Amino acid sequence: MIELLAYPFMQRAILAGVLLGALLAFLGIFVVLKRMAFFSDGIAHASLAGVALGILAQINPLPVALVFSAIISACIAWLERHTKITSDAIIGLIFTSGMAAGVVLLAFKSGYQPELVSFLFGDILALQWSELIIMAIFSSILMIFLTWQYKKIALMIMSPDIAYVNGVKVSAYEMLLYVIVAVSVVLGLKLLGIILVSALLIMPVSTAKLFAESFRRLIIWSIIISELTVLSGIVASVMLNLPTGAVMVLCGMIIFILTFVWQKLLHPKLNSGM
After folding, report:
1. Which residues contact 82 (CB under 8 A, 6 or more apart)?
2. Which of 25, 107, 171, 182 is the most exposed place for a label (fewest CB within 10 A)?
3. Is 7 helix (H, G, I), strand (E, B) or coil?
4. pLDDT tens for residues 107-134?
5. What are the residue ranges spanned by the domains of the chain?
6. pTM
């Protein structure tokens, strides 16, 4: 294992995993509270169109997908407020249209696309330094903002009226949350891929909710569990020569099951308080 750490691809993978693991876990708390799991999944699938645009333009697909997903998420938030169409229907429309547009655009690019496969299923071991720099910059900015504003965001989600009375611009914060989730999801595509990225938003916080006794502890434990999931997934996938993204998700599920068994069977009287 120590020998593996000497390889640049492992160093890049671990750095990216630590950064995105913390960001997605922190953000996942708000996703779960606001019941945005379908939104995050829909944005991940719709971002295929942005990835396809980047591939066709022969530039790094990650920045293109970031911009595309931010625009799409803002459109979803606007449509929710200004139309009578339900939220899940809007997301469904964007989800399917984005995927369809991505498939059509990629039809103009013949041949096997290994980079596209990495975005679909994740391939953190193939991460390049340029992509890691982009992830580090965006992850750091978003983590700083969430740490600074998490109380207002949580209040906006749990009680919009009270948040408004306390001076929180609810509509602006809601739009901002949608954009942040979209950008974070796209940043995680190389980690877990379009198919699996929403798992890292949901699994750590779901596990932490089994025993966390306060909102602050929920944040701390969600991040710890997420980092454990990511790092154990990377190590296990390399040692067993298995797909990294899928192994991460399975590691996360194993941690959830073990925590559930511990909390329910060994400590049945433990009250989560959440």
Report:
1. none
2. 107
3. coil
4. 777 665 666 666 777 778 888 888 899 8
5. 4-266
6. 0.84
